Amino acid sequence: MAVDYEKEGRIAVFTINRPEALNALNSQVRQELNQALIDFRDDPDLWVGIITGAGEKAFSAGADIKEFRPGPMETRGAVAWVRPDQIWKPFIAALNGFALGGGLELAMECDLRIAAEHARLGQPEVNIGFMPGAGGTQRLPRFVSRAMAAEILLTGQQIDAQEAYRIGLVNRVVPLDQLMPTARKLAETICQRGPMGVRAVKEVMIRGYDLPLEQGLQLERDFANRVRTTEDFMEGARAFAEKRPPQYKGR
Ligand code: CAA
Questions:
Q1: Which atom of ligand 1 approaches the CA of 101 most closely?
Q2: DSSP structure class, residue 177
Q3: Helix 195-208 and helix 231-241: axis angle, to 10°?
Q4: pLDDT the model gives residue 76
Q5: Count of CB atoms situated within 10 Å of the CB of 145
Q6: Positions marked catalytic
Q7: Distance from residue 192's CA to the centre of ligand 1 (Å)
Q8: Atom 28 in ligand 1: which residue has the minimum CA distance?
């Protein structure tokens, strides 16, 4: 298997498993990741996903350059490609090393990014006569300043984890041995929150991002009204009044 997919209670862990090729995204990885993402999306018992890479060297060094052929880019999988930012459950990218090209693009499709101290991030496509093709030019300027995005995209140079933290591209930098414990702890914290509210927050943040403010506020009101019809909404309020932990059901 090129992607290990493990379910740990309400958390799913996706591990890109080609450490000998720095977890480069070849067609097998893309297809297996796609299948796992679909399973995660459709499994009501799974609430938060963590994506990481096998080994200590790379999250992913990007698209598999050795598979490059002339002509249009392949579709990213045999079935419709599903991206983490199209699934309304939170994703955490745990960057255990290089996150380059398509690897950084995948990390940017996640909601939170935690980097090991030795991680290095970048969009090196221009170094090999190419350009980002999976969101780099569009997401990076939305995550960091346009000036920093332009520098990363145009020079192809890597930045280290601390610099990625300084510019707001990653949420936290931790020692490698704390990477997965930190990711799991964050995931568990989110799992304790009301899942209907959590999913609505993600969807409204993403769908509302490019809307004019009034339309974004309307979208938020519509979703908030929908969340008010769920069992979890009343459970949260009852648990608060009764001074006990809530028992959310995801409905
Ligand atoms: N594709 C295929 N193989 C890769 C790879 C990639 N993206 N990145 C690394 N590998 C392979 C290397 O070829 C090498 O394999 P062999 O042992 O068989 O030679 C193995 O992984 C280990 O890599 P290195 O020996 O190069 O390791 P290093 O520590 O010396 O260098 C590195 C690390 C700087 C990350 C270097 O591997 C590198 O520059 N990799 C390419 C990074 C890159 O350009 N990524 C962008 C790809 S394009 C893209 O992603 C397009 C898109 O937006 C969709």
A1: 50
A2: G
A3: 120
A4: 52
A5: 12
A6: 105, 125
A7: 39
A8: 22
